């Protein structure tokens, strides 16, 4: 590392404008990014209140309340804030649980810039920091009745600990055997539209007359459990995911013929005649787009179900003997209870300030932020965590925290 710490929190007074030292409920901190000052905090000690973000635009001499995307962190005992790359503020939370102690407020990332353009307002976006990486999600798309759900069920039955299903939201009515929260989150249009406006959806589309969408939480919950996420979405949804920051594998399932697709839809018996007709009309355009748009990495024809399933497994690297375990869920980050925060290059030093000896897991730690991935509005993954015995370790070498 070689370089002296850029900033050490003990050298700074709480509430300084560099953003370090955001304290407890009722306090605020400010971080300067270009000609804007981002003030993060809470106005009072009311436990019902939450972290708010206000922006002071120095060039216009005006306060702005931005649109805040993503889920906000809860209120805890105290916070430290560190500006990273000039485009996001890392918030380190004191007194939180190990899985909830690192958050990012994106203030000028590509995602935030795009959202500003779309909404025409100031935008900031929260995402939660997570250790380690998740496996690439698998997006499965294709016309209604082609067999996507059947193939996904086969995969989940054979590899229950490896895959998790992204439970979509929809405004369509549940079918007889469908359970809320398992097959879909069945919801009202007005509620879903508000959630879409609040940035809670990775993608959404109007499909066969109803609104369908994948919430960011649905995908992240699967990744948090250490499983590989499977999305069953239409072609418009696949296109939106392709354009998003989610790095996924895209598979299109095509029918052997329109006649066969019609027969499958009718035999399933879940739609009225009018709905079958609508789905078949939409299928033609979906097949055309699926095969020609360049969205999909793989196209599989579901003629013979067993053969198609074998091909799906092959492209997912599962054609050998069945692996039994998924990747273990990444552990949380055990912060020392009393700590100070400083930044050295791509490393954040969280220095234990407890006078008495502490056990290994409560030692000072380093967060390596050189491999951050993903981001708002969901999870920022790729945080690496190392334990250190003393501050000089930080300069001389680091030990990986198990
Ligand atoms: N290869 C196949 N040969 C014959 N029938 C099949 C085949 N694959 C699936 N099916 C049947 O076709 C019907 C439709 O399948 P499924 O419900 O999985 O379609 P889907 O693509 O998920 O449809 P939707 O998009 O409407 O949810 C089911 O009754 C299923 O059993
Ligand atoms: N864009 C999205 N499409 C979705 C989502 N969830 C499901 N779907 C697609 O809708 C049709 C119809 O489904 P059905 O359950 O009513 O038969 C099908 O093609 C699904 O793939 C979603 O979240 N986003």
What percentage of residues falls in helices of 4 or more residues?
Answer: 10-25%
Ligand identities: adenosine-5'-triphosphate, the ligand Nc1nc2c(ncn2[C@@H]2O[C@H](COP(=O)(O)O)[C@@H](O)[C@H]2O)c(=O)[nH]1
Shape annotation:
elongated
Total of DSSP H or I helical runs spanning 4+ residues:
9
| Strand element count | 25
Strand pairing plus helix content: what structural class? alpha/beta
How would a crystallographer describe the biggest sheet?
Answer: 12 strands, mixed
Low-confidence segments, given as residue ranges, are 1-25, 397-402
Name the beta content range: 25-35%
Report how far the terminal alpha carbons are from each other: 22 Å
**Rg, please?**
24 Å
Average pLDDT works out at 85
Note down, in words, how this protein is organized.
The protein is an alpha/beta fold. The protein is 24% helix and 31% strand. The chain is built from 9 helices and 25 strands. It has helices at 110-119, 148-158, 189-197, 216-224, 235-243, 258-268, 273-292, 305-315, 391-396; strands spanning 7-8, 28-33, 36-41, 52-57, 62-64, 67-69, 78-84, 88-94, 102-106, 123-131, 138-141, 163-165, 169-170, 185-186, 201-207, 210-215, 228-232, 249-254, 298-301, 339-344, 347-352, 364-368, 373-374, 379-388, 399-400. The strands form 4 sheets. Strands 1, 6, 7, 8, 9, 10, 20, 21, 22, 23, 24 and 25 form a 12-stranded mixed β-sheet that branches. It has a 5-stranded parallel β-sheet with strand order 12-17-11-18-19, sandwiched between helices. The longest helix is centred in the C-terminal third of the chain and has 20 residues, at 273-292. It is elongated and about 75 Å long. It starts with 6 loop residues before the first strand and ends with a strand. 39% of the residues are buried. The chain binds adenosine-5'-triphosphate and ligand LQESDW3C. Ligand LQESDW3C is lined by residues 144, 148, 168, 172, 203, 205, 207-208, 212-214, 232-234, 236-237.
């Amino acid at each position: 590392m070689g370089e002296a710490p850029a900033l050490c929190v003990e050298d700074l007074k709480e509430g300084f404008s560099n953003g370090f030292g955001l304290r407890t409920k009722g306090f605020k901190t400010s971080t300067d990014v270009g000609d804007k000052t981002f003030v993060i905090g809470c106005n009072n000690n009311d436990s019902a209140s939450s972290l708010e973000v206000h922006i002071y635009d120095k060039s216009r001499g005006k306060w702005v309340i931005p649109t805040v995307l993503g889920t906000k962190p809860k209120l805890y005992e105290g916070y430290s804030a560190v500006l990273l790359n000039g485009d996001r503020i890392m918030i380190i939370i004191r007194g939180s649980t190990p899985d909830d102690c690192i958050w990012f407020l994106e203030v000028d990332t590509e995602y935030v810039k795009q959202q500003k353009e779309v909404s025409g307002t100031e935008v900031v976006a929260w995402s939660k920091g997570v250790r380690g990486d998740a496996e690439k999600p698998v997006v499965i798309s294709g016309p209604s009745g082609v067999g996507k759900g059947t193939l996904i069920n086969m995969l989940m039955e054979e590899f229950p600990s490896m895959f998790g299903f992204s439970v979509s939201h929809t405004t369509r009515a549940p079918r007889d055997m469908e359970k809320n929260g398992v097959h879909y989150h069945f919801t009202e249009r007005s509620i879903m539209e508000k959630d879409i406006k609040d940035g809670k959806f990775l993608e959404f589309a109007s499909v066969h007359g109803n609104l369908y969408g994948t919430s960011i939480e649905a995908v992240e919950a699967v990744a948090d459990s250490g499983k590989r996420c499977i999305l069953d979405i239409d072609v418009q949804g696949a296109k939106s995911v392709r354009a998003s920051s989610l790095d996924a594998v895209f598979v299109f399932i095509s029918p052997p013929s329109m006649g066969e697709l019609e027969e499958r839809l009718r035999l399933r018996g879940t739609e009225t005649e009018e709905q079958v007709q609508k789905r078949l009309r939409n299928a033609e355009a979906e097949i055309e787009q699926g095969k020609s748009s360049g969205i999909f990495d793989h196209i599989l024809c579901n003629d013979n179900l067993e053969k198609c399933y074998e091909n799906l497994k092959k492209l997912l690297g599962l054609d050998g003997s069945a692996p039994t375990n998924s990747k273990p869920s990444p552990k949380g980050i055990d912060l020392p209870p009393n700590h100070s925060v400083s930044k050295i290059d791509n490393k954040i030093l969280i220095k234990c300030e407890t006078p008495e000896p502490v056990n290994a897991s409560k030692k000072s730690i380093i967060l390596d932020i050189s491999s951050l991935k993903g981001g708002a509005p969901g999870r920022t993954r790729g945080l690496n965590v190392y334990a250190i015995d003393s501050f000089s370790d930080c300069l001389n070498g680091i030990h990986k925290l198990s």
